[in-house]
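INFO  loader      accepted 1 record
INFO  loader      residues=268
INFO  predictor   begin
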Amino acid sequence: MLVANPGSRPLAGGQSLLNVLKHRAAEVEAVIDISRLEELRGIDAEGGRLEIGAACSYDRIGASDAVAAAHPKIAAVADGLVDQQVRCRGTIGGNACFNDPGSNYPPLLVALEATMRVVGPGGDREVAADQFFQDTYRVDLGPGELLRSIVIPAADGTAVGYSSLQAEDSWALARAVARVRCNGTIAEPRIVVGCVSGAQPRATAVEQALDGAEPSAEAIAAAAEQADEGLETASDAHASAGYRRKMARVMVARAVTEATERARRGDG
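INFO  predictor   done
INFO  writer      dumping tokens
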């Protein structure tokens, strides 16, 4: 149907698409409801590896014991999203494919080195999350293609921290996700800054500063000062560019602190 109707868009939970259409920010030729396709709603966990169907609602993800056991932060983010009505309708695939800089899951999926499974007229293909998220509202999906599921590798001894600053209207102003190993010192840090760009940029300067460092508050704070290095921020109705850059540093420090503490406790 997507191929037969050029300019059409798939509809799952509608939490983003319906607002876009309501405000006439875009026009589409047809809306194709995929919300009841069971092939897109499964959750599969095996050996710590997790595969989540693109049309899984936040509520279903947050309530899944399999998700909580394999990747507790995936479940926790779903549980904390907005309100119950949105959690019952919104989907992880919709959040990813809309790719607003403030979307909750894209920076987390990049930090976890997720793989996006795509199906389309040319067959199935897999795209690494850090390649899938291209720019604001742009992802690696061609004509007639659909995100089928998201595959997240086993945690394998790593732990994740997730820190977000919300405005009073629930709009995210700054966000950071950190994934680390910590066995005496920090190892293999992977840090992603959210609410800045749809490309979901990694804070590589912070990663380099932290790799091999002691997980002390002083070392983390010093490294986090480089979190906005190379970031292109812009002012909008919610916050100034300068404020976002400053808060990016704060969110990175908090996310890394949480990740190292969770790693030392062994609770992912």
